[in-house]
Known about the structure:
heterotrimer, A: alpha/beta, Ubiquitin-like (UB roll), de novo design (two linked rop proteins), five-stranded mixed β-sheet, 16 helices, 42% helix, C: 907 residues, Rossmann fold, 35 strands, binds iron/sulfur cluster, binds FE2/S2 (inorganic) cluster
Amino acid sequence: MERPLTRNIRLGKSPLHLKDYEKAGGYQGARKALQTMAPQEVTELVKNSNLRGRGGAGFPTGMKWSFVPMGEDAPRIKYVVANADEMEPGTFKDRFLLEGDPQQLIEGMIIAAYAVQASVAYIFLRWAYKRAAQLLTKAIAEAYQAGYLGQNILDSGFNLEMHLHTSAGRYMCGEETALLNALEARRANPRAKPPFPPVVGLWGKPTVVNNVETLCNIPHIVANGVEWYRGLSQSEDRGTKIYGISGRVKRPGVWELPMGTTIRELLQEHAGGMSDGFTFRGLLPGGASTDFLVEEHLDVNMDFGSVQKVGSRLGTGTMIILDDRTCPVGMVHNLERFFAQESCGWCTPCRDGLPWVARILQGLEQGEGEPGDLEILDRHTHLLGLGHTFCALAPGAIEPLQSALHYFREDFQRHIDDKCCPWS
Amino acid sequence: MLSQQERDEIEAEFPHYEKKRGVSVEAMKIIQRHRGWVSTQAIEEISEFLEMTPDELDGVATFYNLIFRKPVGKHVILVCDSVSCWIMGYEEVRSHLLSRLGIQFGQTTGDGRFTLLSVPCLGACDQAPAMMVNDKLYGNLDPAKIDEILEAHA
Amino acid sequence: MATIYLDGTPYEVEDGQNLLQACLSLGFNIPYFCWHPALHSVGACRQCAVKRFKNEEDQKGEIVMACMTPAVDNTRISINDTEARQFRASIIEWLMTNHPHDCPVCDEGGECHLQDMTVMSGHGFRQFRFAKRTFRNQYLGPFINHEMNRCIQCYRCLRFYHNYAGGRDFNVFGCHHHVYFGRHREGVLENEFSGNLVEICPTGVFTDKTVKQHYTRKWDLQTAPSVCVHCSLGCNIIAGERYGRLRRIRNRYNHEVNGYFLCDRGRYGYEFVNSDRRLRQPMVKAKGTFKPVSKERALEHLATLLNAGNSPVGIGSPRASLEANFALRALVGPERFYLGFSDLDFQLVRAALKILQQGPARSPSLREIGSADAVLVLGEDLTNTAPLMALALHQLVYGNAARAAAELQIPVWNDAAIREIAQDQKAPLVIAAPTATKLDHVAKTTYRASPDEVARLGFAVARCLSHEPVVVEGMAEEEVSLAQEIAQLLRQAKRPVVISGTGCGSEAVIQAAANVAWSLAASNPAAGLSLVVPECNSLGLALLGGQSLEAACQVVQAGGVDSMIVLENDLYRRSKSAAVDDLLSKIEYLVVIDHLASGTTAKAQVVLPAATFAEAAGTLVSNEGRAQRFFQVFVPEGEVQASWRWLRDISRTAGSGDREPWENLDQLVSALAEALPVFQGIQKAAPPAAFRLMGEKIARQSHRFTGRTAMLANITVHEPKPEDDPDSPLAFSMEGYQGLVPPSLITRFWASGWNSVQAVNKFQSEVGGPLRGGDPGSRLIEPEKTEKFSSFDGILPTMKIGSDEWLIVPVHHIFGSEELSTVSAAIAERSPKPYVALNPEDAASLELDEGEKVELALDDGVFQFPSRFVSGLPHKVAGLPVGLPGATTFKLPAVGKVKGAADRAEG
Lengths: 424, 154, 907
Ligand SMILES: Cc1cc2nc3c(=O)[nH]c(=O)nc-3n(C[C@H](O)[C@H](O)[C@H](O)COP(=O)(O)O)c2cc1C
Ligand code: SF4
Ligand code: FES
């Protein structure tokens, strides 16, 4: 089984230096793109590969790039941004790639920038990834030194500057338009769409924002071609995926596997099954803002379409496991409190709705639940749906709530009836 | 007054951003690195240097949770309170820290040694429960490990 | 046009709108908060949700925000859809979770947009049972009260203050449900338009602090349409009274003039009406002291005086109505009528008027100025001399970006996107003025130089435009290329505007502006020329015609005149004290009609108490040449009456019998229009007093006006009959027509379900557009439509400045330079003390620290003032603030000597 994204990563070891990265086949993709392909050809190739964004929404990457104005009349300055904010609770896959193989990301960004003819690239890194920050700083310097960044890269006439920006906190910064505001050192409220960033982005210029994992796919697609890429998985969504698991399992961690690997395989084979003394009750398949799945879904393939079919989302592909000794209401309370706290404060439903939800859940946990509370929670799951709020934070936030109310309703009811949390 | 070094460090960031004010978050982080936190006076100093108003800068500063607008202790403990850590024993970590330090979240110990803050997910869910002290990450916490860490920072 | 379907019914709407605008314009009610017609859409509050359907078959539909959805052809939406209705109610429910529900003690109560929207949304039953978050409030200066707990986080205040008005000392702080709108530290809000927060905020976070001192609910105010008297722009206001005190000023929407906004001088300057300095009783001087007398007694006394002496001369006033000035002119005769301008203003305002009349460039309205695509300002510091014009110019950036956005299919109402595109773009605006202005930071180019140099630049631009050689003697190369650059900018524009005025005291500057505008107009009929003049009726007074104050002095000096009537004018603000003293010492009978005691009234033999703008009706002519009627708000206590009534009464008593038979304003207006045909138009400024709707007068009081029968109960239990108003179709009563009235007669914005100022939607032909029935005002000056014009030759009467001399230029202050507003405590608090402005380099060469005294030697004498450092002043140019209360009147610009004062603090 091929694991292109993680092939250079050895657990507990420092990442490859640029020289070794090159020896391992690194920068072949960039070389090919910059020296033999026209920018539009690169975009076309990525389009054909069916690569879908790994940041959570699964938007086709090539299509996103094709929205960037090209040609003579296009703005002189354009940007590419790697979204390395990764603040979705339960998600740590990008950290693995950043710490494990920073050159791979840089190469992906160079190709992306070439495809859309951007002249400046940023890595927007979350504050907590201190080690990644060090490694990236070093890697960028190496890439400059080797001539992969700067002027006239690989004699192609293409120029690219790259900067690392570390954030100052706030989950909201991961949302791509809020990220742009954060990068401009403004309050990270999201922006209205349209216009979309590929047309009006950072400082008003065309900007492509892609997730770290998405960008790490690019060098391999370019180097090995679409056929090879498609062959990596049986799923319609193609390629490999970095999956992860946390919670009460024997071996929490991340693994690169063909897109569409089943939940059961991930849980049993890769995470080693539930920890001793804990029984599986459910899981969030792709980070905190996805709907719960339960026992009956264990054989679902982890790809965009299959997970959606059973009422959840692939999201980031990093799963959080709920066990029988953990209170589902407490877990949902933890999640909703997080989302309420991380709302940017711009739109009403999210700013004022989520704190109410969180407060009710806190009340349930503290034995202060009242009849009618579940109806208010139900109501919020409808009211905070997609399109009702300004961005996708709140709609994401109520996904675990709505599914928990569905799958674990008796547990909620017991909190009210018993006037206490049965798990405490 | 910004020190010469602070100025130099901020100026070094200028070429990375299209606009001068684009440096402001970096600038506040630089000041925070030097002074531990960003005081109201610091806000005024930085904003003047960046040709912003203090109101403009403070609006940004107060949005982000890791710009400290209040003084902090010598060591800042950031405890992850998000879902994976919560499942894996956050409550125990929390009560141990609170009783060991004798303070609540958001407070600094009397000797000015530790400030205790909770933060959302540290991206260390595979090592939950986790916390960060200053810039270093500690995973798979239990009371004994916490004691060890606190001692190391004594 | 586009066809949209609302709950199944097709409607035609204008292209390019969003659904919220379109639906409101059609008369439907959709609640909203973050949207505002002047601030456009950002989609933050989510209050304006409606259901949109893909097509006729679609039954499910999706929730969209009306304000963020284009009203394109074939859009199908439902306002009444159950899900949409429930969602809108939920928005209120959320906003209310933290709201203090303190309506009974909230100043906004009864005119609160949040109250209206709450009722409209249908939310009524509170389910949130947890604690509310609370905030601390801030001191924000004398204008605005802050009560953050009432905030519903619509972000409108920030968007107005920061984006629209360019204020940078206000922001939003914090995150999630802890967002705080205020200042980084407590302190005075600096922006000149901060008062608009009171109307922009949909609830009671920002309220009018001056009103707090004599608070009245909106429904208990007696209100009338009025016109601001604090500068020459003629912003439309609604003035409100209760218990004989003027309580507040609010914006009165006029699409062509001030739109939704006012400046703080206009909003807070009103307290002079309630001032202790008010004259309320006629007074006659006997043995050097004034004695209050009855009206009859005063008139008798006057009759004897006037009949005994020779005929008086009359001094008019640029802050009095046309009618008052005309009445004086009629009383004394046109040949003895003198305009009450200072000599310099006389010269400048007359020049401005002549230029506007001659054409070909037309004077644009404020709205037209705000939608210009290139503007040249010569010599004016607009923020301080014509504030709302500055606010209009601040929007040029947006207009520019909106044009670029249109190419990306982004509609003009997508506020955030357009500001994203605008970035730090500068406006197509060039400002050439002696001092830095607050608009400089949005201007593409600024040029700071003496008035003569500014004029020279203007002449050069005009020559460029007329394809004449640019060379003006003494011009540096950079100035020549600057002139070419400006000419290029203006030539390429579709709607260029040139702005100048009397602000820097130079006729050459005004002439230069005329030359530029005229050269443009030769090829572009849309080119506009706007000239700012000093006071609310300066242009009207000039139109009336008459001689200068200087001429009056000469006549008096020559002997043969021993009596004088001064109308609403403090001559000490027009001329040097010594000159006025000298003039008045030669007048045996001085009659002063005014509303405030002043240096001039102190010298009078007879003082007659005049009505202020709030106590009488009349007409003012704005700098645009727009005649606008203001109406009496209330009947004042004492023997106060309109100046024209005093003049008429004098004329009657003084024996000339029925020479002036005007019984009411309409008769006076007709007489004026007949005597001076330029004023024909003022008859159309408002309907006559006989106007009725459904047979009724229009009520000044709302139908909810309370306590009328009890108001005077401590004096009499009989409810007196409301006073008659012979001058207007308005009634001092709640009886009368309460519905939609002609625009010039709008006494308040109210519609069923819309108690807040947002009710203005219902008075507009389309939301944000003209008022139904046309915007008030009647333009008196339309230039001759000729392509031939004779431009000024541009030979500058350059001021000769010796090498040891300085040029002293006037500096205007929005708070301080205008006479009446500074009588109001809040404005006085913001006014500076006299000072001399120097640039820091010049100050250094004088070895001066800031605040140290400067000695100024002028023709008028030697003066000492503290120094103030103002960077950007040209070398060896000093600034002196004009018009500060109690300060000496200077004729500026002037040449003089500047040095450190001998007695300045040592060490
Ligand atoms: C509240 C919120 C948080 C997000 N956080 C992240 C994040 O941390 N990292 C990320 O890559 N995408 C995040 N996204 C998704 C981004 O908006 C965006 O879709 C993504 O960066 C696009 O990259 P992709 O197309 O390569 O997936 C977030 C979205 C939302 C609404
Ligand atoms: S859903 Fe609304 S308040 Fe929440 S983060 Fe998005 S824009 Fe901000
Ligand atoms: S008015 Fe439409 S979202 Fe606020």
